[in-house]
């Protein structure tokens, strides 16, 4: 449960919201909405205790389960299964019981007896916390999030960003937290997992705040909506479901426009009369009173919501290059004993459009990282053709230096840019004024996406490697991405769960992982996108 009073949030000198008060009780399922950069992620981080507010107070009652957009929690050496089970204190006990079992087989009687006592103690604690039934519950949640045993038995450091995020989501759902704060929980989930998550959240008894661009999930689960208005710097609270909220918000906007139009008309009339009367000394006092009435009329109005700005995106004119700027030969990758893919061959011709499909964990992100030069293949080689310039968009935003400012990241992507030129491009991506000096590490997921895309725009890349480029974007910004994809004349290799993104790309070829099968694109492959 959360009690929020007179909350004020700032980023630098910019006020995101002020005088905000609300309560989240058991059974409240709140959809937190607003354009990218409005402060949704900053608010959830503050509610979770990861950031401190500029003013006001937050009272937290019971455990909080927080899923950030880019989770980096947990010991990298820890097994994924242990990470989930430790949400209820079971993971370390299971590891200890396994170690004690091995030691009980020791030929040394003293070691064996000590291990037996340790096992008994650990097993008693394990059973007290729910034991095998609780362990089975964790396994069921993991399974529904497409996390099979082969992933659960791996150390966290070997997992892809999408797998790590699903581990954290499973951990939170399993924890029994009284309040959950979920920031884009459907990212990296296949269609079946998204459907299962919707049903889980519908039956959840605690308090929930969810940020999601998945309209079906929000429509099916929320019973309250908090609209974060970036222009008015307030949260409008709607105690109703999603469908009714959409109707009510439109009605509110129309009411504000009518009230403002009427008040402006009256104020204008009063000001004109005041101007005429003010010319006569005998009526100066009456003129002042009229002017004050006009001012009061306008000051008492609610602001009309200005149209939300949208990032204007066009990918760069590609630099000149040879017929086949990028090639991969006999590529393979394994993590320990886990084989991801083997013997993958790929030619990226000038201007070609390729989509990579495969189930979660099939190696799609890994292959893009190898093609970009971030990771090395275990076998084979990457061959750079004449004039190759790669632009890599990483789904976890690893291309951003979180310790550098927005402006410094831009200049590093294209050193020939002047500060004025960099600021002009940043402005088209909604980074204006002091925003340019914010550290990349404090940006929301949507803002990081916009910065990473802005860096691509100035790169003059002729091969774009795009890993889930529409994640974390509001619908309008997503439309800009799709339009840019459709008009880009360079080569693109795309990984995406977004059917609209693949349709906009209009690919010529498809590569299926982990088998490395390449084929001409046809509409039959479209059914695999949401499963990939």
Automatic annotation (TrEMBL):
The keyword Ribosomal protein is annotated on this UniProt entry: no
Start and end residues of each ABC transporter domain: 2-267, 326-531
Residues covered by region (Disordered): 247-269
Sequence ranges of Basic and acidic residues compositional bias: 247-263
Keyword ATP-binding: yes
InterPro entries noted in UniProt: AAA+_ATPase (IPR003593), ABC_tran_Xtn (IPR032781), ABC_transporter-like_ATP-bd (IPR003439), ABC_transporter-like_CS (IPR017871), ABCF (IPR050611), P-loop_NTPase (IPR027417)
Signal peptide region: none
Keyword line: ATP-binding, Nucleotide-binding, Repeat
SUPFAM superfamilies in the record: P-loop containing nucleoside triphosphate hydrolases
GO molecular function, one term: ATP hydrolysis activity
Pfam short name (any one): ABC_tran
Protein name: Unannotated protein
Source species: freshwater metagenome
């Amino acid at each position: 449960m959360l009690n929020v009073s007179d909350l004020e949030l700032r980023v630098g000198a910019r006020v995101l919201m002020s005088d905000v008060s609300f309560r989240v009780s058991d059974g409240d399922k709140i959809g937190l909405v607003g354009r990218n950069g409005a402060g949704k992620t900053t608010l959830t981080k503050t509610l979770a205790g990861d950031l401190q507010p500029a003013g006001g107070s937050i009272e937290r009652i019971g455990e909080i389960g927080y899923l950030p957009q880019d989770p980096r929690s947990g010991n990298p050496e820890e097994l994924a299964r242990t990470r989930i089970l430790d949400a209820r204190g079971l993971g370390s006990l299971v590891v200890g019981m396994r170690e004690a079992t091995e030691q009980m087989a020791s030929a040394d009687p003293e070691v064996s007896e000590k291990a037996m006592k340790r096992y008994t103690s650990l097993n008693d604690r394990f059973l007290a916390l729910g034991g095998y039934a609780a362990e089975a519950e964790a396994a069921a949640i993991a399974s529904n999030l497409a996390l099979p045993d082969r992933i659960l038995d791996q150390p966290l450091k070997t997992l892809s960003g999408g797998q790590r995020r699903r581990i954290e989501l499973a951990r939170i759902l399993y924890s029994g937290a009284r309040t959950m704060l979920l920031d884009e929980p459907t990212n990296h989930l296949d269609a079946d997992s998204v459907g299962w998550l919707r049903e889980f959240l519908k039956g959840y008894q605690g308090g929930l705040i969810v940020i999601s661009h998945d309209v079906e999930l929000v429509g099916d689960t929320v019973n309250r909506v908090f609209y974060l208005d970036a222009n008015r710097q307030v949260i409008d609270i709607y105690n109703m479901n999603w469908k009714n909220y959409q109707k009510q918000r439109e009605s509110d906007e129309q009411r504000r426009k009518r009230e403002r139009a009427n008040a402006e008309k009256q104020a204008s009339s009063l000001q004109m009369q005041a101007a005429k009367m003010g010319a006569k000394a005998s009526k100066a006092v009456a003129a002042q009173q009229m002017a004050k009435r006009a001012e009061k009329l306008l000051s008492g109005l609610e602001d009309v919501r200005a149209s939300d700005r949208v990032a204007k995106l066009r990918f760069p004119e590609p630099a000149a290059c040879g017929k086949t700027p990028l090639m991969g030969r006999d590529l393979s990758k394994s993590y320990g004993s886990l084989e991801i893919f083997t013997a993958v061959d790929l030619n990226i011709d000038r201007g070609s459009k390729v989509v990579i499909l495969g189930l979660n964990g099939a190696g799609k992100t890994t292959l893009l990282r190898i093609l970009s030069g971030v990771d090395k293949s275990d076998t084979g080689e990457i061959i750079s053709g004449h004039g190759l310039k790669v632009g890599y968009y990483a789904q976890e935003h690893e291309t951003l230096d979180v310790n550098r400012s927005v402006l410094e990241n831009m200049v590093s992507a294209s050193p020939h840019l002047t500060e004025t030129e960099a600021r002009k491009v940043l402005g088209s991506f909604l980074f204006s004024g002091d925003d340019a000096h914010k550290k990349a590490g404090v940006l929301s997921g949507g803002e990081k996406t916009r910065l990473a895309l802005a860096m691509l725009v100035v790169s003059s890349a002729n091969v774009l490697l795009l890993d889930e480029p529409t994640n974390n974007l509001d619908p309008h910004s997503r439309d800009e991405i799709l339009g840019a994809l459709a008009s880009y004349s360079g080569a693109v290799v795309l990984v995406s769960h977004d059917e609209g993104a693949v349709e906009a790309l209009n690919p010529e070829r498809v590569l299926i992982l982990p088998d490395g099968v390449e084929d001409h694109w046809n509409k039959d492959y479209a059914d695999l996108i949401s499963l990939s």
